């Protein structure tokens, strides 16, 4: 059953910012780079259930180093989306040959790109292929971009620098192609610590951070997906725009741990570490080196208190989706578009 049928709501009820929408007649085939991601899956499902007939979704069936997802998980996502009417294609950021089929005939791209080795070659190559295939609008999810707080992240966290550089490249695409862009710059996704620490939460009932009790600017991936749907359905309004999408306000990781205890029915112990001990702990979990580095760098920035600054927050998200951003409690309660097979988280 669809999430709209389960709730008895129309899409415009779920995302008030849509108003009385009609599809942009120029939307054409939409290619979504990741049908297994927390944002991409929801965007694909929302478009299909709203009645868009041409949704192409990229699925990668390789081994996932984060979150314990496997090929069966990818297959479940693919089957669910295909049943709704999506065209599912193999897509691998590390395989340039997969770009051709994914982008053929696509007018619009919704891109969630992971941090990876050789990204400085991968993203420009994908964008070049998008130009060759006459893509007209390119929507990309990024990290916070505008303001002093965002600049501090870009200067100190390689993940933020990576996204900022990709954004710079995308913004210049209109100078030599027909591509317009919309960049959705999200703060820390509420799903990220749950996915990265999912095994530990399930088996050890521990939530480990190094934010030193400072508030964190967490935003719901559901809200980011809803903002993307609004932009996709009304791309003319949002053409060549950059938005900072932040959460409702700072929340400490200790408060998050209490919410996890409440919603998963087991005591989740919050363990606060220093920066170096945290980095060692992440490395000991067997996570890739880039994730060890970025996770530690993010914790150091959180501990600095940057997410408690008013400049870390923006009204952009509420303006786009027409409702208040989800709180962390709202996010945990919202099971309407959970990916198949995902239970914790």
What percent of the residues sit in helical stretches (DSSP H or I)?
A: 40-55%
What is the spatial order of strands in the main beta sheet?
3-2-1-4-5-6-10
Shape: globular
User: Which structural class should the secondary elements be placed in?
Assistant: alpha/beta
Number of alpha- plus pi-helical segments: 17
Termini, distance in Å? 20 Å
Give keywords.
seven-stranded parallel beta sheet; globular; 17 helices; two-stranded parallel sheet; NAD(P)-bd_dom_sf; 345 residues; disordered N terminus; alpha/beta; Rossmann fold
Describe what you observe in this structure.
The chain is of the alpha/beta class. The protein has a domain at 3-189 and 219-248 and 309-326: NAD(P)-binding Rossmann-like Domain (Rossmann fold), CATH 3.40.50.720. Helix content is 46%, strand content 14%. The protein contains 17 helices and 11 strands. It has helices at 3-7, 11-14, 38-50, 71-84, 97-103, 119-132, 148-156, 158-171, 191-196, 198-203, 221-233, 235-238, 253-264, 275-284, 289-303, 316-321, 328-333, and strands at 29-32, 55-59, 87-90, 106-111, 137-143, 180-186, 188-189, 206-209, 218-219, 241-245, 269-272. The chain has a 7-stranded parallel sheet with strand order 3-2-1-4-5-6-10, with helices on both faces. Strands 7-9 form a two-stranded parallel ribbon. Strands 8-11 form a two-stranded parallel ribbon. Strand 2 (55-59), helix 4 and strand 3 (87-90) form a beta-alpha-beta unit. Helix 3 (38-50) packs across helix 11. The model is unreliable at 1-8 (pLDDT under 50).
């Amino acid at each position: 059953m669809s999430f709209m049928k389960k709730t008895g709501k129309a899409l415009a009820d779920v995302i008030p910012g849509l108003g009385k929408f009609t599809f942009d007649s120029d939307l054409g085939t939409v290619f979504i780079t990741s049908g297994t991601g927390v944002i991409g899956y929801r965007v694909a499902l929302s478009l299909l259930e709203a009645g868009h007939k041409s949704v192409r979704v990229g699925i990668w069936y390789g081994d996932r180093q984060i979150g314990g997802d496997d090929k069966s998980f990818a297959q479940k996502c693919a089957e669910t989306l295909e049943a709704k009417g999506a065209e599912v294609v193999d897509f691998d950021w590390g395989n340039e040959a997969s770009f051709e089929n994914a982008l053929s005939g696509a007018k619009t791209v919704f891109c969630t790109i992971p941090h990876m080795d050789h990204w400085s070659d991968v993203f420009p190559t994908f964008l070049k292929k998008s130009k060759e295939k006459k893509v007209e609008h390119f929507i990309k999810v990024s990290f916070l971009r505008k303001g002093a707080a965002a600049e501090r992240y870009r200067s100190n966290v390689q993940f933020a620098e990576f996204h900022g550089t990709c954004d710079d490249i995308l913004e210049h695409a209109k100078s030599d192609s027909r591509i317009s862009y919309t960049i959705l710059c999200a703060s820390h996704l509420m799903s990220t610590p749950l996915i990265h620490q999912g095994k530990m939460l399930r088996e050890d009932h521990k939530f480990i951070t190094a934010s030193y009790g400072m508030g964190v600017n967490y935003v719901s991936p559901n809200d980011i997906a809803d903002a993307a749907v609004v932009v996709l359905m009304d791309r003319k309004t949002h053409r060549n725009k950059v938005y900072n999408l932040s959460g409702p306000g700072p929340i400490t990781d200790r408060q998050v741990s209490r919410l996890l205890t409440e919603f998963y029915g087991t005591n989740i112990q919050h363990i606060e570490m220093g920066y170096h001990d945290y980095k060692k702990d992440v490395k000991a979990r067997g996570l890739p080196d880039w994730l060890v580095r970025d996770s530690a760098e993010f914790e150091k920035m959180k501990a600095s208190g940057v997410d408690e600054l008013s400049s870390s927050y923006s009204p952009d998200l509420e303006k786009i989706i027409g409702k208040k951003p989800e709180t962390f409690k709202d996010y945990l309660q919202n099971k309407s578009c959970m990916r198949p097979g995902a239970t914790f988280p």
